[in-house]
Amino acid sequence: MAGGQTGVAELFAQAARHAAAFRAELPKRVQRPQQTYAQALATFDAPTPEAGTEAQVVLEDLVARATPGLHAMAGPRFFGWVIGNSHPMGVAADFLTSAWGQNAGNHTACPAGAACETVASRWLLDLLDLPREASVGLVTGATIANFVGLAAARSELLRRLGWDVEADGLFGAPPITVLIGEEAHITVFAALQFLGLGRARVTRIPVDGHGAMLPDAFADAMRTAEADPAVIVITQAGQINTGAFDPHEAITRAARKHKNVWVHVDGAFGLWARACPTRAALAKGVELADSWATDGHKWLQTPYDCGFAIVRDAEAHRRAMTIAASYLPPVAVGERDPSHFVPELSRRARGFAAWAMLRHLGRDGVAAMVERHCRYAAMLASLLRDEKGIAILNDVVLNQVIVRFGADLKPEAGDAATAETIAAIQREGSCFAGGAQWQGRTVMRLSVISGSMCENDVLRSAEAMIKAWRGVYAAA
Ligand SMILES: *Cc1c(COP(=O)(O)O)cnc(C)c1O
C-alpha cells in the first residue's frame, strides 16, 4: 500500500498526471458522456471488496472506469445547464484543500481556512458591490445559500414578533407570508420546503414574457399582505432560462412599506452581473435586499461545490445557523467561525479555492469574463437567428439564450423539431446543449458560462447547431 512518503508523492503525481491529461483532451473529446448511467453502473459494478487493493492500482482502475461516463462539463463548448468550468486554478487549490485534510468548521482548529474565508468573503462583497457589513457563509451551492438566507429571514422576522423559531420551531408561530415570482428557480421552492415554510404555501407573482416579476402585480400582492405579521419577498437576479432580472428597485420600494419584511435575492449566476461595469445596471437595486444567494461554481468557475450565502444582518445569519455545543471552542469578538454561517459543522475548507479564483482573476478578470460571456451569448443568438426556421425567444441581456427550432411550424411540430435537433446536436458531439420547457414549449437552452470558451468555440458550436437543424429540416 502507498503508505510511505514516496508512495504518497507518486500517488498524488499519478492523480495530477491523469487530471492534466483529461483537461488536455477535453476540447477534442466528444462533448457528451460516452456511456449511459446503466452502462456506467455495469462498468463499476462488482461485489463488495473483501480484501484491499494497492492505491495506485485503485487509482488507475478508477480513471479507466470513470472516464467513459464523464461529461465534458469543464470543456469549452459546453452550454448545458449553468455550469462553470472548474478552472485549473481552483482545481489546484482544491487538490490542496483535500490533501491538507482540514475540517474547516471552526477557526481554532483551522485558522488558515477560516481566515481565507474571511478575506475571500470581503473580496466577494466588494466585487458584487453588496453591503460590506454583510456576513458570508461558504456553502455547497445556491440551493443551500437560498436555504440559509431564508432561514435568517425566518429567524429575524419572527424574533421581531417575540418568537424564537430556533428554540420553539414553527408550531404556533405567527404566520409568514411568502411572495415569489412565478418563474423562480425550483431550488428556492426546495429551500422553502426544508424550512417548514412550504413550497406551495406561497403567493406567486405574475411575470412578464421573460420571467421577471410585474411590478404592479407585486405592489398589489404587497397591499394584500399589508396586515400580515411578517412577509418574505423572494426575487431573482438572472432567470435560469432568459437571464432576466426582477425589477429590484420597484420591488424593494413596495416591499419596504411593510414594517416586518425581508427581501431575499436568488442570484445564483446573475448576481455576477454586478461585477461587470457594462452589465451591472441589470442588477440595480439588488443591493437593497436583506440576503443574497449566489454560486462559486457557476460564474466564478470554482470547482464543485461552492456557493455563498450572504446576509446583511450578520447576527440574524448567525442566530439561524449556530450550532451550540459545550465542546466547541468559544468565538472572541472579531473572530469568525465558518460553521456559524452554514448548516454544517464538519465541512470542506471551500475558502481556499474561492480565494484562489478571486485572486487569480482579479476584479478586472471577473468583469472581462462576464462581459465576454454576454457578448458570446449575443453572438450565438445572432448567428442562429439568421438561419431560416430558428428563433431566439428571449432578449439576450446576459448569458442565457432560448432557442426554438421549427419556429414557423405548428407548436407541436416545433416541439418535435426542437427535440430532434437537440438530439442531433448531442449525437454529433462537438458541443453540448440541452432542452428545457419554456412557456409550455420545448426549447433549447444555451448557457454561456464556461471560463475556457473562446470566440472560435462559439463559431464552431453555432455551425454545428445550424447543421444539425438543417439535417432535421431536410428530413421533415
Ligand atoms: C443554479 C441555480 C440555483 C441552484 O444552485 P446550485 O448551485 O445548483 O445549488 C438556484 N437558482 C438559480 C437561478 C440557479 O441558476
TrEMBL record:
InterPro entries xrefs: Aromatic_deC, PyrdxlP-dep_de-COase, PyrdxlP-dep_Trfase, PyrdxlP-dep_Trfase_major, PyrdxlP-dep_Trfase_small
Q: Does the keyword Lyase apply?
A: yes
Please give the name of this protein: Pyridoxal-dependent decarboxylase
Cofactor dependency? pyridoxal 5'-phosphate
**According to its UniProt record, which protein family does this protein belong to?**
Belongs to the group II decarboxylase family.
Under Pfam families, the record lists: Pyridoxal_deC (PF00282)
Which keywords does the record carry? Decarboxylase, Lyase, Pyridoxal phosphate
